[in-house]
Each structure stands twice: as structure tokens, then as C-alpha cells.
Protein: NADH-plastoquinone oxidoreductase subunit J
Amino acid sequence: FDCRGIETLQIKTEDWDSIAVISYVYGYNYLRSQCAYDVAPGGLLASVYHLTKIQYSISKPEEVCIKVFAPRSNPRIPSVFWIWRSADFQERESYDMLGIFY
Structure:
């Protein structure tokens, strides 16, 4: 959990495709934001996805934060553009800033 009480999952790159699909099927239908950061100099790179479950009958939407880690030697993380269209420019910006291939 982070300071706001949002559950945070840390996953491997090879698990991201299936976890993204499961998250969408479970109702996380909105990608609020995506960003990336350098975990440590010469170490891992991380891509962070903030997902929200938006439903009409719920006053406070559920949120989850998913961190996907990739080695600097092979910075490839599967794109989720085909699930959440809003990932398009955000993942491209992460590529421009950190060189992560989506």
C-alpha cells in the first residue's frame, strides 16, 4: 500500500500481459496514468500503471498501482495500448525519457 492506501503490486515483465487482461476483466477499465522511473543507477527500470475501476453505482472507485520491472540490459515491457488506449502517448513518453520499449 502507498500513503493513500492504494494497493501496489510489483510484477515481472513476463507476467504483465496476463495481469493486465485479468485487471481489465475484473473491472479496472480506466488507466489513470502511466509513468516510468530508474530504480537505481545501472539497475532496473520500472513502468508504473495506475488503474481505476469506474462504475456508476460506486461513489469511491477502486484503484490499484502496478509496477512492472525490466532489466536495463533488455528494457522491454509489453504495451497495454490494446487494452487501455490512453497508454499510447504515456508509454511513448516513457520510451523517449528512459528507452523502455513497449
